[in-house]
């Protein structure tokens, strides 16, 4: 600071360029990097994918072993961190995974030896292209065979090209979808299957004990109500029915007479307006209840 030629830099000199939104190419590169990671790691544990691999209703990839561990109570569950356990539970709840019926075992066609990620290259059986972040892929329910999306669309058939098993157009599950349209379709499919009591693998969903008990209680209450109604109205004997009607008629007559007598007694406590007008109304109000003594007259 003392004649040494130094200076204090200003903000304009330090901040050369203002922050800018990422470009399209940068966003694409980030998306590909995210997909590449998701294609190689289990969505539940973060470990490298290895056969057997399963897919859920949202197109995510899991190691089957990790799904089994998450569903079954583990002996060392207390030693697991609460944060990690909560993340796994949220991951399963997102796709409503409660058992192995809620996932589909994926049938990948492999080629070549294992690479650095300890897995073989997965390819499309039709196009022979490598499946990964650069190729959109789908798997079919319930067989689980995996193909390139473009190949399935070009064939336009509703049978699996590998095993010839039939499938519905809505049962083409995109793997790791990024488009909002695909995600919305998968959510709609999941809700529709739930209403039909079907799992993601198109198997019958196991009804919870709570729902079964509620349905049984409702059915029992309905039957009891119907039975009571039939008992009250279903008098089969003619003599009994005639006697019952006579008793009810007498009881109704007694009720009417009691109400009439009660009305007469209540009316006697009050003076009607018409009677009061005939007697002069309120003209004797000042002298009412008072009589002049005889001696004073």
Features:
mainly alpha, three-stranded antiparallel β-sheet, 9 helices
What does this structure look like?
43% of the residues lie in helices and 8% in strands. It is mainly alpha-helical. It has a 3-stranded antiparallel beta sheet with strand order 2-1-3. Strands 7-6-8 form a 3-stranded antiparallel beta sheet. A hairpin with a 5-residue loop joins strand 1 and strand 2 (61-63). The protein is elongated and about 135 Å long. The model is unreliable at 226-235 (pLDDT under 50).
Secondary structure layout:
Blueprint: H1 11-14, H2 24-40, E1 53-55, E2 61-63, H3 64-71, H4 82-94, E3 104-105, E4 109-111, E5 121-123, E6 137-140, E7 146-148, H5 149-155, E8 172-174, H6 180-195, H7 209-233, H8 238-268, H9 273-278
Antiparallel strand pairs: 1-2, 1-3, 4-5, 6-7, 6-8
